[in-house]
Amino acid sequence: MMPDLQDLRKEIDAIDNQMTSLFEKRMEIAEQVARFKIENEKPVFDRTRELEKLKSVSQKTHSNFNRCGIQELYQQIMSISRKRQYQLLQEHGISQKSLFTPVDNLEKENVTVVFQGVEGAYSHAAMCRFFGNSIQSYHVDTWKDAMEEIKHGRARYAVLPIENSTAGIVQDNYDLLTAYDHVIVGEQIIPCQHVLAGIPGSTLSDIQHVYSHPQALMQCREFLDSNENWCTHDFSNTAAAAKKVALEKDKTQAAIASPYAAEYFGLSVLKEGIFSNPENSTRFIIVTKDKIYQKAAHKISVSYELPHESGSLYNSLSHFIYNGLNMTKIESRPIANRNWEYRFFVDFEGNLSDSAVKNALCGLSFEVQNLRIHGNY
Amino acid sequence: MMPDLQDLRKEIDAIDNQMTSLFEKRMEIAEQVARFKIENEKPVFDRTRELEKLKSVSQKTHSNFNRCGIQELYQQIMSISRKRQYQLLQEHGISQKSLFTPVDNLEKENVTVVFQGVEGAYSHAAMCRFFGNSIQSYHVDTWKDAMEEIKHGRARYAVLPIENSTAGIVQDNYDLLTAYDHVIVGEQIIPCQHVLAGIPGSTLSDIQHVYSHPQALMQCREFLDSNENWCTHDFSNTAAAAKKVALEKDKTQAAIASPYAAEYFGLSVLKEGIFSNPENSTRFIIVTKDKIYQKAAHKISVSYELPHESGSLYNSLSHFIYNGLNMTKIESRPIANRNWEYRFFVDFEGNLSDSAVKNALCGLSFEVQNLRIHGNY
């Protein structure tokens, strides 16, 4: 006779009670193992012992399916044990020294800040919004130049775009974070809205020529198409287009540029909201050379390389979740000269002084290659 | 007294023996549950029952750490059970209808294939390598055009670059996979090596002018700098530069282009290995409209959107690992008009007919939004 579903579930519940109690006993003994390891300065992660354990439990099963299942289960159980052992190490004050120094506040007065682009560009706007006006600033041609400026101490901070809400991450700047030993100390989101701007006194009906970067012209195509008689002209960047219109003082000319550029070059905004995506924003990071973080910082960016092993990506991520850390972003970039191998970038919520964070980073450092902490901000 | 490590390990071994035997008993009963479900046509995945189980086991633990640990463990145990149940369903000839049809082989003879770029470009080379020479092919200007061609049935397959080993993913083509309901049926890796090519009979000492795409010129900067008297000229793409040199038949001209372009336009290779990264390769995907996969396919690409919830990224990935599926890649792209929300793209090893894959995709479909299977190849 077919057994009743309720009876089967009762049997399962009974097994689960036993398994739960065995699990707790096992964790208790794992704690004693940890104390032994602490006394004897042995490492938490013992790969040989773990492989032996996987072999021995799988040999005790009676089907191919269960052999595979029990191995999966024990990989997880041993990972949980390890995490508890790292917590205990932490409680005993045994942990890697942090290279980062907490500060109350970032110095934002009378510091020198470098940004890529020109005055009036979105990165210029991000800088002004983040630092206010009591700074010295200058601009360079490339993002790499900005990194070099802070490397050589000519600027204290650099402002770089890292992600646009429509276009995605700025891959080059992820690579620069890897290439330079600099630290993210802040971020600033700037709405990227284009406006049509002309010289003061001009009106929409005066306009015959519109100047902008080709991408911006494309993003405002719908608006431009509604004015048949306008002639559009490509320009190297939107701020430069605004500058040209301001310098030439011709009522028939307008630029598509940011409201910041319009204001900076003294132009009048003739039409707002001409970009087809009204929510479009760019996130900028503030980078410096000193390994510091604000005591109130709540977001951490790390990156690491993984060995070519099944499950290594998942196992690395488990260190965040077992420590209750919420990952907000994961990205990968190819590793130079190692075909089809990747460096993973993870953003998660936390502060470098939290024990959960220390715990996760400690565990992670044993399992991944070239772990980097890019900053806490 | 501190207990001996050997004694502790013996205790752990004893616990593990009991746990292994309980695990096997639990799997036995789970099989009976599966038979009951098959008889009564009930679904394998019972979310309510699973959530209740997680709650009840976690209530039996005595620390926050164990509460979290036992939940992780039971998510895994229930996933293993489910996997076994899907296997049994399959043995009874009951399985969910798949939208994908397995085929023995892809049709590669007398089909029409579209690629972006020009003859002699890397995508052209990828197409020839994948399909051989018994096809009709033509090219279009943009990747989107290629997707449109197969959408409207003018071509059976399209060839698109998806990732370069140095530069990373081609973001636009990830977005096109989302925008179109097409399917990846194959991939082809092509080494992206530049050569210096001149007209037949020319030698290195004849050369005075070098034509290529600015990026290629930059990638070969070291080689170019070693020949002081050469004048470099920007060109729209490397294959077009090769074509120009071939057409003008001037011994003083050379192009930096792919070996495929050199061969296609009948040029002589004057110097190989001039690119600073000798390992540089690009991975192309072969896309079609029909939802098919080869029976021997071993790699699956999926994507999904996640709710704004703590741990949702990690939980979604757990479906791959609990089913023993090796993730080989994870990427994210912003979701249009939803600021700072992402669609995640995961590549993993497997075939759509594997029960582990069915289990993972079924579990995933309950936890993520807008799950898409982009192909099995």
UniProtKB/TrEMBL annotation, chains A, B:
<comment type="function">
    <text>Catalyzes the Claisen rearrangement of chorismate to prephenate and the decarboxylation/dehydration of prephenate to phenylpyruvate.</text>
</comment>
<comment type="pathway">
    <text>Metabolic intermediate biosynthesis; prephenate biosynthesis; prephenate from chorismate: step 1/1.</text>
</comment>
<dbReference type="GO" id="GO:0046417">
    <property type="term" value="P:chorismate metabolic process"/>
</dbReference>
<comment type="pathway">
    <text>Amino-acid biosynthesis; L-phenylalanine biosynthesis; phenylpyruvate from prephenate: step 1/1.</text>
</comment>
<dbReference type="InterPro" id="IPR008242">
    <property type="entry name" value="Chor_mutase/pphenate_deHydtase"/>
</dbReference>
<dbReference type="Pfam" id="PF00800">
    <property type="entry name" value="PDT"/>
</dbReference>
<dbReference type="InterPro" id="IPR045865">
    <property type="entry name" value="ACT-like_dom_sf"/>
</dbReference>
<feature type="domain" description="Chorismate mutase">
    <location>
        <begin position="1"/>
        <end position="89"/>
    </location>
</feature>
<dbReference type="InterPro" id="IPR002912">
    <property type="entry name" value="ACT_dom"/>
</dbReference>
<keyword id="KW-0413">Isomerase</keyword>
<keyword id="KW-0028">Amino-acid biosynthesis</keyword>
<dbReference type="GO" id="GO:0004664">
    <property type="term" value="F:prephenate dehydratase activity"/>
</dbReference>
<dbReference type="GO" id="GO:0005737">
    <property type="term" value="C:cytoplasm"/>
</dbReference>
<dbReference type="Pfam" id="PF01817">
    <property type="entry name" value="CM_2"/>
</dbReference>
<dbReference type="InterPro" id="IPR002701">
    <property type="entry name" value="CM_II_prokaryot"/>
</dbReference>
<feature type="domain" description="Prephenate dehydratase">
    <location>
        <begin position="112"/>
        <end position="289"/>
    </location>
</feature>
<keyword id="KW-0511">Multifunctional enzyme</keyword>
<feature type="site" description="Essential for prephenate dehydratase activity">
    <location>
        <position position="282"/>
    </location>
</feature>
<dbReference type="InterPro" id="IPR001086">
    <property type="entry name" value="Preph_deHydtase"/>
</dbReference>
<keyword id="KW-0584">Phenylalanine biosynthesis</keyword>
<keyword id="KW-0057">Aromatic amino acid biosynthesis</keyword>
<dbReference type="GO" id="GO:0009094">
    <property type="term" value="P:L-phenylalanine biosynthetic process"/>
</dbReference>
<dbReference type="InterPro" id="IPR018528">
    <property type="entry name" value="Preph_deHydtase_CS"/>
</dbReference>
<dbReference type="InterPro" id="IPR036263">
    <property type="entry name" value="Chorismate_II_sf"/>
</dbReference>
<dbReference type="GO" id="GO:0004106">
    <property type="term" value="F:chorismate mutase activity"/>
</dbReference>
<dbReference type="InterPro" id="IPR036979">
    <property type="entry name" value="CM_dom_sf"/>
</dbReference>
<keyword id="KW-0456">Lyase</keyword>
<keyword id="KW-0963">Cytoplasm</keyword>
<protein>
    <recommendedName>
        <fullName>Bifunctional chorismate mutase/prephenate dehydratase</fullName>
        <ecNumber>4.2.1.51</ecNumber>
    </recommendedName>
</protein>
<feature type="domain" description="ACT">
    <location>
        <begin position="301"/>
        <end position="376"/>
    </location>
</feature>
